[in-house]
């Protein structure tokens, strides 16, 4: 997979040089490039923002640097008349107004060949940037969650980590991807390791029994109990209820 990130804070992504994603880059599993938006400015102050038309607080990111930066990482700009290319890169702009990112979207993105992330700052990016590229390629606004961040970098880091670990070969033991939270729609079960007794707290005896059937049943019960308590909205019956009510 190829990943391009455009940002005014390239150093923010130095963390992608270490750990599993750093190894995936070294082995060529992921070709990840970080681009400084200011390298696509043409004034001596390397200006990327300006005041909003119509007034209002804060600054908006100018379209010209974004156009030059995105043109540099996207294939030869297709003609808008041809409509958005369906087989080209997927361009993702993190935004509080975006579709909520979740594990299902992470799985979708992990199947893509080329992702381009545009990290906005200030009060956001001039809307014409989104409109221009949405006419030429696939563009998505994606939100990390219902809270306001100062820019897109934290969201992009989270998305790249969630997507990267689903790419075959990135995580040593693919088995560990199967039983984690949200992979089967439920929260994960609690985990334990040695010692069997710690500060008078014991490991649940079933986990020491060697009875794999009983262990699997206990773990599924723990997933259901934890999901009911913490995230009842994830339970199948909650979704079934929603489905019924939308049918009216
Ligand atoms: C006219 N006004 C009306 C109010 N808005 C509100 C507003 C919009 C952006 C920002 C800061 N910011 C800039 C780029 C950028 C990208 C992602 C996110 C982001 N926040 N939360 C998520 N889950 C995010 C993600 N993913 C935030 C970003 C601050 C305040 C501004 C314009």
UniProtKB/TrEMBL annotation:
Keywords: Cytoplasm, Methyltransferase, S-adenosyl-L-methionine, Transferase, tRNA processing. Gene3D superfamilies: 3.40.1280.10, tRNA(m1g37)methyltransferase, domain 2. Transmembrane segments: none annotated. Signal peptide: none annotated. It is found in: Cytoplasm. One of its GO terms (biological process) is tRNA N1-guanine methylation. One of its GO terms (molecular function) is tRNA (guanine(37)-N1)-methyltransferase activity. The keyword Methyltransferase applies. The keyword Cytoplasm applies. It holds the Pfam family tRNA_m1G_MT. Homodimer. This is tRNA (guanine-N(1)-)-methyltransferase. It comes from Cryobacterium tepidiphilum.
